[in-house]
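Throughout our pipeline, every protein is held as a single compact record rather than as scattered files. Nothing more is needed to write down the fold, since each code stands for a local backbone conformation. The record that follows is passed on verbatim for readers who wish to inspect the format.
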Amino acid sequence: MISRSFLIKPASSLCNLKCKYCFYHDISDHREVHSFGVMNESTMNALIEKACDTDQSSTITFAFQGGEPTLAGLDYFKHFTDKVNQVKRQNQKINYTIQTNGTLLNQEWFELLKENDFLVGISLDGFKENHDLLRINASSKGTYDQVMKAIEGLKENMIEFNILTVLSSTLAKQADRLYEFYKQLDFKYVQLIPCLPRLKDTADELALSPKLFASFYKRFYDLWLIDFNKQHYISVTLFDNVIPMFKGYRPQQCGMLGYCSPQFVIEADGSVYPCDFYALDEYVCGNINVNSLDEILKSPSMNRFLSEKKPMCSLCDACRFKQICNGNCKRLNVTYFDKNYCGYQDFLEHASSSMSEIAKNL
């Protein structure tokens, strides 16, 4: 059975917030065109038609990100889902996901998300003090209260959601407080993504360092393990990916085995990139309006991206975890290791024994 995923930027880099660490704002600043605006109907139709032009029993995932994807407007998503229903083949399974800051969600949005069975990712940087420090609006005001209101709306409308938290240098020093925050609010699905330095930089004030990566995850994992052993399970993306690898399962998250997989990242003008972290002019692999998916996959830019070398740590060759890492994701690994120290190795040395035991029972 064929499975295809498309990561769509329906409102390009447009956003109603000014988060202090936004990686996509940094990426778009390095392009000739900072923002392509809102995707027009012609590009939307071309994307949907080519995505659904595949096997009858295939699974197709449309994932919406930004910027802030809800800035494309409710009508955009209504037209998108209506078009998919018109075009998709009888036995094709369609999945929808959206990553949003939540500040624009209201009852009309909840009804659309519920009707089309969206999985919603909500950006919430933990407790109010930290969130309002980093995730601010155009008036430099914190957005915690708005996000929590959106979460309540998702719950009331019985819409599946998970929490995405950016693990900054400030938050990484507060593992206990963050874990307790998740527990108190009964969040069951949590993804922590490392705060990245700006492109071509190795560090900045908010970026996660390898030492902080290790110290945070060792403590956070210990707290998680106590609850896991009490049958109180919280899904944490890193743990969900790493633990099965001790039993030979492949991770679901791209890059965790040390190499890239080709992706379809669709900007609002139809430009296609191989990865969300590399939506840059030099990596354009084609345009969904004029190129077939096969042409995009076989493009020189895609091949160059997949074959590029990446930084490695001096500890990699002798590391006993090499086969489940191999230097990890080439964009994220700057937060895992430097030349002579690996926070990822440090964490795995701490957690591998219990992770292996958990894996035996999978």
Notes: The first strand starts at residue 3 and ends at 8. Residues 210-229 form the longest helix (20 residues). The chain has a mean pLDDT of 96. The beta strands are 3-8, 59-64, 93-100, 118-123, 161-167, 189-194, 235-236, 264-266, 271-273, 286-287.
